[in-house]
Design a protein that fits this description.
Length: about 525
């Protein structure tokens, strides 16, 4: 099997995605991760576009990348100019990368209306630009913009572009579905019609406008392409690019292709999450292979089969891509799911009293709007209570919050809290925050800081609110999820109430008590 080259464009095409912007530091950090994963090529950006891009190419040389080659991206020379002096070509050479990816027009209508030149001049632009870059010792990949649309419109011209680039010395010809409207069967047919023996190696660059970017990329490989371009998580312009988080495992695990990054496949999930964090986007739970739900099982009976014979219910073991199987607690959860979730505390019989009790309790809570799929820490506290292995952090006496706003100043909330610990000792906390939830969190920490120094390690990293019955308008019940972290572990908790402050309070207290019971009391760390 011929090796397939993976070419990542997260830092160039991926930056065109709505709501995505990476700082220079982010780009360098992503490049280091892509290199560690073993991606063959990293497209760093468009050196002509701005200073940040040019600076990336300077700094990336000092990152000591060992597996990935960095490519600069840019377009062919302008019409009727010398390639050697052209600002596009100069910027590409100044980027100092071993590889340059040049993009050129393939669709005659674009040549005519966008470049405003003749089809013949476009061919000369392609030839000259490639020759200058090759003359400077660069490896040159040629992206044929709008290749599939261009081919459908005028196959003779699209072929002339392929031949010109090939003869000029391009090392790879990447066929682009720039508008993302091509379907897999068309990709197979068109590649099948190309005179492959006469051309340099073929690559594929797909966009996801018909949800076929991954399928089109695989079809292209099947038809003979040996270089695939895409982005991590599929983020990119409009609906995005081919998602490398699906392309890579599909090629390695399903199509048996050799990939340089295949030995690191088990780091794929963490790579996907790392890029999501840098993009400041919440990872898509339902993403194939790397999403949180990709190996989650909900229905009771179904989960039972998963436990006995996972291969009957999963297309691959999630560990292969660094993901994990999750057995979700839900209204459908059977007793066997509860039994497995109790594993941590010993082995329990399906018909034991505690399993019956927990299954019933779970049903009750879920009926009122609680959901434990994404709040395992809150569920852990329910289990601990049932097993008598729970110790409260404090007893609430009362809290009081007051939000205020004066003209021209931002709203604030001031609050105080009274607690007792060990049944008698009274503690008080007070704070001001931007809103009630932050104020409550500060008040709790203020009251407990001396007694429980571990709290200073815990940070709230995410807070999400969902309205459960919007038809009740402002009296609707809300569900709050809080995700917390101590820098190493993260855990999530849930609260439900008609009052958003109360729902948040429940999730906040669960977060602290979960950590207290699992990591402070049980590890015997100081500060209890
Ligand atoms: Zn693109």
């Amino acid at each position: 099997m011929q090796r397939v080259i993976i070419y990542d464009t997260t830092l160039r095409d991926g930056m065109q995605g709505t709501g995505i912007s990476y700082t220079l530091e982010d780009k360098l950090a992503i490049a280091r991760q892509l290199d560690a994963f073993g991606i063959d090529y990293i497209e760093g950006g468009f050196p002509l576009s701005n200073k940040k891009e040019a600076e990336f190419f300077r700094q990336v040389r000092e990152q000591g990348l060992t597996r990935s080659r960095v490519a600069a991206f840019g377009s062919t020379r302008r019409p009727h100019q010398q390639a050697a002096g052209d600002p596009h070509i100069r910027a590409l050479l100044e980027a100092g990368t071993p590889t340059v990816t040049l993009v050129g027009k393939t669709w005659t209508e674009h040549v005519q209306h966008v470049l405003r030149t003749t089809p013949e001049e476009n061919l000369r632009m392609i030839r000259d630009s490639i020759e200058v870059l090759k003359g400077e010792g660069r490896e040159v990949f040629f992206d044929l913009e709008h290749f599939f649309d261009g081919y459908k419109h005028d196959p003779g011209y699209a072929l002339a572009v392929l031949r010109t680039a090939s003869e000029a010395g391009a090392d790879c010809l990447a066929l682009c579905d720039t508008n993302g409207g091509t379907l897999p069967a068309e990709v197979s047919r068109i590649i099948g019609e190309l005179p492959r023996g006469e051309l340099s190696c073929l690559g594929i660059h797909c966009h996801n406008d018909t949800e076929n970017a991954v399928a089109n990329s695989l079809a292209a490989v099947d038809a003979g392409a040996v270089h695939v371009q895409g982005t991590i998580n599929g983020w990119g312009e409009r609906c995005g690019n081919a998602n490398l988080c699906a392309v890579v495992p599909n090629l390695a695990l399903k199509m048996g292709r050799e990939l340089a990054c295949a030995p690191n496949l088990r780091h794929l999930t963490s790579l996907a999450r790392f890029v999501a964090e840098k993009a400041n986007l919440i990872p898509d739970k339902r993403q194939p292979y790397v999403g949180e739900a990709a190996f989650s099982h909900k229905a009771g009976q179904h989960a039972d089969v998963v436990a006995k014979a996972p291969r009957l219910m999963e297309h691959i073991p999630g560990e292969l891509v660094g993901n994990e199987r999750r057995l979700i607690l839900s209204e459908l959860a059977g007793k066997s799911t509860v039994v497995r979730r109790l594993d941590k505390y010993g082995s329990f019989d399906k018909n034991s009293e505690v399993v019956q009790l927990l299954t019933g309790r779970l049903k009750e809570l879920e009926e009122t709007g609680f959901e434990y799929e994404a709040a395992e820490a809150s569920f852990d506290l329910i289990v601990r209570r049932a097993l008598d292995r729970y110790r409260p952090l404090f007893e609430l006496r009362n809290y009081h919050l007051e939000s205020f706003k004066a003209t021209d100043s931002p709203a604030r909330t001031v609050g105080r809290i009274f607690l007792t610990t060990d049944g008698s000792k009274e503690l008080m906390g007070a704070a001001v925050g931007v809103g009630p939830v932050e104020t409550l969190d500060y008040c709790l920490r203020d009251a407990l800081a001396t007694r429980h120094p571990f709290l200073s390690k815990i940070k709230l990293v995410d807070f999400a609110v969902r309205v459960l019955n919007p038809e009740r308008a402002t009296a609707a019940r809300v569900r709050v999820f809080v995700t917390s972290s101590d820098g190493e572990k993260t855990w999530s908790t849930v609260g439900v109430s008609e009052n958003i402050v109360e729902a948040s309070w429940q999730a906040l207290v669960d977060s602290m008590e979960y950590y207290y019971n699992n990591y402070v009391l049980e590890s015997g760390e100081p500060g209890q």
